[in-house]
Write a structure and sequence with these properties.
By secondary structure, the chain is mainly alpha-helical. The chain folds into three domains: 64 residues, Aspartate Aminotransferase, domain 1 (Alpha-Beta Complex); 30 residues, no CATH class; 65 residues, no CATH class. Helices cover 37% and strands 9% of the residues. A three-stranded antiparallel β-sheet has the order 3-4-5, with no helix packed on it. A hairpin with a 4-residue loop joins β1 and β2. The longest helix is centred in the C-terminal third of the chain and has 16 residues. It is extended and about 55 Å long.
Length: 185
């Protein structure tokens, strides 16, 4: 049996072994096991996930928010594979026909958005959105809920993370130093 603050689970030798391996090389006792249900997953499909013992669960977190259509949603997988075959994958250089076409489509959908910026990671995009909002609003205050990455602004209220003790306005930007539209031209 494995007990956590949230539940008790009958754990097989396979699961115990996987948990020991995870703790040795990647998992955190505090963040991965005591704050969440300590399951080691082996696969996912749609709204379901399976643990290393083959038990099926309903994924109510949608892969932590990363798969709103469910894991392995066939139309998305098929389209991604088709595009990878057609284009050869990631294109060198910052500009591509895909990027231009997507920016044009976004401008049609959101006429007030005159330009589109693309980022390599969700973390970069989130941080850029926070910086733009701070500059536009003229404030450093960030209200947040849930998990949005390992950014200092996101973790500022978690002293256990070892961040320097300062207020929520850590990131001192030159607020309204120039018009927003000129910031990224």
């Amino acid at each position: 049996m494995l007990s956590t603050p949230h539940a008790t689970l009958a754990v097989t030798d396979t699961h115990k072994s996987a948990l020991r391996r995870a703790l040795r090389v990647t998992a955190s006792e505090k963040w991965d096991l005591n704050r969440r249900f300590p399951l080691v997953m082996s696969r996912a499909s749609g709204a379901h996930v399976w643990d290393v013992d083959g038990r099926r669960y309903v994924d109510l977190t949608s892969c932590g928010g990363a798969a709103p259509l469910g894991a392995g949603y066939e139309p998305v997988v098929d389209h991604v594979v088709s595009e990878l075959r057609r284009t050869g994958g990631i294109l060198p250089g910052p500009l591509s026909v895909h990027r231009i076409e997507l920016a044009e489509r976004l401008a049609e959908i959101f006429p007030r958005a005159q330009r589109s910026l693309f980022f390599r990671t969700r973390s970069c995009a989130t941080t850029a959105a926070i910086r733009l909002a701070r500059a536009h609003m003229g404030t450093n205050l960030v209200l947040t809920s849930g998990y949005h990455g390992w950014h200092d602004w996101q973790l500022q209220d978690r002293p256990a993370m070892g961040l320097p003790r300062t207020g929520p306005g850590q990131c001192r930007l030159p607020l309204r130093s120039r018009p927003i539209r000129e910031t990224f031209r």
